[in-house]
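Supplementary Text 2. Reproducibility record for the structural model of the 362-residue chain.

All settings were left at their defaults, and a single model was retained for analysis rather than an ensemble. We include the record here because the model underlies the residue-level annotations in Supplementary Table 4.
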Amino acid sequence: MDYSNNGKYLISCDEGGSILIIEKKFQEDQNSLKNKKKYDFELTRFHVPSKWYKKLAYSEEQLYQKMKQYILSREEQMEYGFPVENPNEPSKALILKENKFHNNNDVNPNQQICCRCETEFYLKSDGSCFAEKDCFYHWGKKKKTEIINSNCSKYLYSCCNRETNSKGCMTSKYHVSNQVTHNLDKFVKTKSLSENIENYGIFALDCEMCFTIQGLEIAKISVVQSNGEIIYNTLVLPENPVIDYNTSFSGITEDDLINVNTTLEDVHEVLLKLFNSKTILIGHGLENDLKALRLIHDTVIDTSIVFPHYYGLPYRRSLKSLISHHLHKTIQENETGHDSAEDARACMELMLWKLFKDKNKK
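Retained model, structure tokens:
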């Protein structure tokens, strides 16, 4: 496949043409008809360019220059837990801020804290986990609910409408971890370009993840270009055995990954040709996607930071609420889980809408 060196155009084509990078072995896999139908449906939904892209009427060079004002500094990236290059060990990533379930126990690195129920558990040599009790958890988020005939309100879990102090409505014999610190030596970094150009490319990406015996691993990635059209969309086979497909959020099932042979290394090969170090990547909670991708990239925009929560950090508004509030649209309505292509496009649309509002203020 012939890529240009600026990360903007792919293959020989007319400007404005629709370009899709599709894993051939996935597309031609006749044994995965269910997956193929889902895949074709996504391609159809996101073929039409974003209306905000059309309304802006910027050239790609103008769009890149306007987007630059929202790029996070290295200090901000470190503050929000983005993987950055380790100055002392260039071959490793550096993540200064891990989540609250991060294991700081240097004496026993196999000691973990479950990110669903906060139970302490231990990893065995075969990768399985040991804990004194099963994992009881709520997969839904806390939502504020007004009490009828009262001025009071309370928080309930969206998955079962139970109160926040209730026992989990779901149970699993497995406990899971979402930390990535044990893989810091397996990150790759986007490459720099020798020449100076006006546009290094703008893309939005989103990943879906499954829980494996080694924590969260990528199971699907979607990338859209600046006009909102899909440019890369593929399922990914996790490196380690899956213990929970996280279907309520990822939308991934065991059947979806049957006959999928695309590895994270295959994804790296595509992304390192598609992106360079100055390509603008847009996402929501993008640090989580980059950690799952094991990708170090310096030029990032995060919609959860551009559109901050009313109460400030550490709170962040969900992508669904931002799209509803600003664009008056509904996303993530599928009961079978999220759609990474839909979320990636939503992130791009939010930033295009932001630029459109900025433009009309002047």
